[in-house]
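pasting for the record
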Amino acid sequence: MIRIFALTQAGAGLGNHIKELLLAQGSNEEVSFELKPVPFAETVQTAFTNQDRLILICATGIAVRTLAPVLVDKYTDPAVLVLDEEGEFVIPLLSGHEGGANEWGRQVSDLLNAQLAITTAQAYLQPVYTVGMGCERGCSQEHLLEFLNECLANKGLTIKDVVSINSIDIKADEQGLIELAHTLGKSFQTYSAPILAGVNDQLINPSQYVYDTVGVYGVAESAALWAAQQATGNSAQLIQAKLKTQKATCAIARAYPPGTGSIGGHD
């Protein structure tokens, strides 16, 4: 979900305008706008903790002080943009690379014809994004597609950014995943549990239950990480830890081609 907050009447017009633009663009996420909710800090912090993407129309200092108590790390915090009341500048404040705030900021600045102010280090070349998915037997393509689009939207990505869909080898004949990849024009790759075990130390949500069931501590996260590493020959990182529905799991990894990547700096 995208939550837009403003503190002043001057910012309210901009907030409503952004909401209308995002909805008109066909956003896959629910979009809401609130003017100075009471209590402000607690409302914004709750939205952030719930993994909602935030657009804050206020001073950067206010945004930083409001969110500081609930920050975790750049791999799990949702994307946050800060805008001035006139809508002249869009600042990706948190999770610029990992959370997709930089790319989301570009999209919002284009909608507003505003100036994008990116402060994180930039990559020389475009990163490679891979998706890892697991599902119960017989899960439909429709369910998987809706879930995948939601996961990508959380990070400001679309299916065009993804190079492959990946899973464990016991899912090699899973029709829903096969049909999903075919429909989207993406390769579908599966890997054995011993191979996926090679990225165990990089998992964000390892599960003993999953290990006892299929021999790997996480299907979606492991498959996404391994595929990104294989696609680039470089180390990968999760930008979306495992999300799940009652029927499926999904994770997104990113890697840069050799000799590229973030040049120092942090989100």
